[in-house]
């Protein structure tokens, strides 16, 4: 591998509960059969990817009280799927999205530590939060959290989980610098957690992780989310797939990590991306047009805008202009179960109108133009160059790739693009032996003393 170029990190995800999956395609398979998960994971490992990623769906999405009929629905339990994949892979990281709001620290620590041992050091936890009563209705406590408190609980949950993971750390007792609120004794495995969210003590049952600790992933766009991720995560999912905003986000997260007392290289930035390949640029562009117009129907375009406007837009023509009416943020939510990523509804609505007017695009065309997440389109040579250039320009440290076609879509990327990335010297030809996810990502093994969490 080249010593002068950054190495590209690659994750693979299997599309599920969203409109990106081309479920109508004649070659499309199931989103819940184990064979689909196995095929995608084995293909990613064949391509020397770093990890396989599972999103989470705790409740079926609704619009105006009705289940979305344009979404793929159904989501098996994350731990069950990843534990099964550990048996059919050898090197691939196994990353699961598990909610910090509706799970307890002991359960989280035990399950991820068990997965880490079963896989030989390949487990990762994508920490997410919830505050809405809609999601909470599936759980005993309901939506009791104020939105401002979700990261308070998430940070305390993560600190508590790490305390348990570190309770078998070595030959010295562990105590953080926050007044001894998170304490563990490696001689006995005993732990004590005293905080606003938890008051627990006991004995942890799982020995130290083969990679020191499971890897922690997080996504955050708001200032609070960015700060939490920069201080706590090993990798963060970026929503930016285009320069220069991606490079701005990259610099911001890295600088926040340094301010939190970390090395900038100890946190990786990873946007998600789709891809469409063709033998010529024109063929790739035409294939992309067919795919995206199949994904974003008129109904889908209206629903995506309804999340921003918080209004019933079903009376608008998808082939007409973006609605001139303003959003209504104070009305009861019309869309439930979809993460809201737009910080300012009014500014976002105005920007979409301006894009439509400037480019002379219809409502549906504006959604296609503005909502697609960093597509990689072109010949295999062009896509390999796009990935390499983006990473070398510090737009990210790599990509999490998904295909519109489940489960065989990733095969084309592995067969046609991966060899070109390897020729460029930015992707491993073989995994290290033995390999852990931390080792593959170039992350340090955590010090056995807990970091300060203030």
TrEMBL record:
All copies of domain Luciferase-like, residue ranges: 30-393
CDD domains: Nitrilotriacetate_monoxgenase
Enzyme Commission code: 1.14.-.-
Residue stretches spanning the membrane: none
One function term, GO molecular function aspect: oxidoreductase activity, acting on paired donors, with incorporation or reduction of molecular oxygen
UniProt entry keywords in alphabetical sequence: Flavoprotein, FMN, Monooxygenase, Oxidoreductase
Entry keyword Flavoprotein: yes
Signal peptide coordinates: none
Gene3D superfamilies recorded: Luciferase-like domain
Residue positions binding FMN: 97, 151, 222
One Pfam family named in its UniProt record: Bac_luciferase
Classification via InterPro entries: Diverse_substr_monoxygenases, Luciferase-like_dom, Luciferase-like_sf, NTA_MOA
Record-stated family: Belongs to the NtaA/SnaA/DszA monooxygenase family.
Protein name per Swiss-Prot or TrEMBL: NtaA/DmoA family FMN-dependent monooxygenase
Species this chain originates from: Tsukamurella asaccharolytica
Top-level taxonomy: Bacteria, Bacillati, Actinomycetota, Actinomycetes, Mycobacteriales
């Amino acid at each position: 591998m080249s010593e002068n170029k950054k190495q590209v990190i690659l994750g693979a995800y299997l599309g599920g509960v969203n409109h990106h999956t081309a479920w109508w395609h004649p070659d499309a398979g199931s989103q819940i059969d184990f064979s689909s998960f196995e095929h995608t994971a084995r293909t990613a490992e064949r391509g020397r990817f770093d990890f396989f990623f599972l999103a989470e769906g705790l409740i079926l999405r609704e619009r105006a009280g009705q289940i979305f009929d344009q979404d793929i629905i159904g989501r098996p339990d994350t731990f069950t799927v990843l534990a099964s994949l550990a048996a059919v892979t050898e090197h691939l990281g196994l990353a699961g999205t598990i909610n910090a709001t509706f799970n307890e620290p002991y359960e989280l620590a035990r399950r991820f530590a068990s997965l880490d041992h079963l896989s030989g050091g390949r487990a990762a936890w994508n920490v997410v939060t919830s505050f809405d009563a809609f999601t909470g209705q599936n759980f005993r406590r309901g939506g009791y959290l104020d939105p401002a408190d979700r990261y308070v609980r998430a940070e305390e949950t993560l600190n508590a989980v790490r305390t348990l993971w570190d309770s078998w750390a070595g030959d010295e007792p562990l105590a953080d610098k926050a007044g001894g609120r998170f304490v563990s004794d490696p001689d006995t495995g005993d732990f004590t957690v005293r905080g606003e969210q938890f008051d627990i003590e006991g004995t942890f049952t799982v020995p130290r992780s083969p990679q020191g600790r499971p890897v922690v992933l997080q996504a955050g766009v708001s200032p609070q989310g960015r700060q939490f991720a920069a201080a706590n995560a090993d990798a963060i999912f970026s929503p930016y797939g285009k320069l220069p905003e991606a490079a701005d986000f990259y610099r911001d997260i890295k600088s926040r990590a340094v301010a939190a007392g970390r090395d900038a290289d100890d946190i990786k930035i990873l946007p998600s991306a789709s891809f469409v390949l063709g033998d010529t640029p024109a063929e790739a562009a035409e294939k992309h047009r067919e795919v995206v117009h199949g994904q974003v129907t008129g109904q889908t375009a209206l629903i995506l805008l309804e999340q921003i406007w918080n209004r019933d837009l079903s009376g608008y023509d998808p082939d007409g202009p973006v609605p001139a009416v303003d959003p209504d943020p104070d009305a009861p939510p019309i869309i439930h179960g979809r993460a809201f990523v737009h910080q300012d509804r009014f500014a976002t609505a105005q920007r979409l109108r301006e894009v439509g007017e400037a480019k002379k695009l219809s409502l549906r065309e504006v959604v296609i133009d503005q909502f697609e997440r960093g597509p990689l389109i072109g010949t295999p040579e062009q896509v390999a160059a796009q990935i390499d250039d983006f990473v070398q320009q510090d737009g990210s440290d790599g990509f999490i790739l998904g295909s519109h076609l489940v489960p065989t879509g990733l095969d084309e990327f592995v067969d046609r693009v991966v060899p070109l990335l390897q020729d460029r010297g930015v992707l491993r030809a073989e995994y290290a032996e033995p390999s852990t996810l931390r080792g593959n990502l170039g992350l340090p093994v955590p010090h056995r003393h807990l970091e300060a969490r203030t």
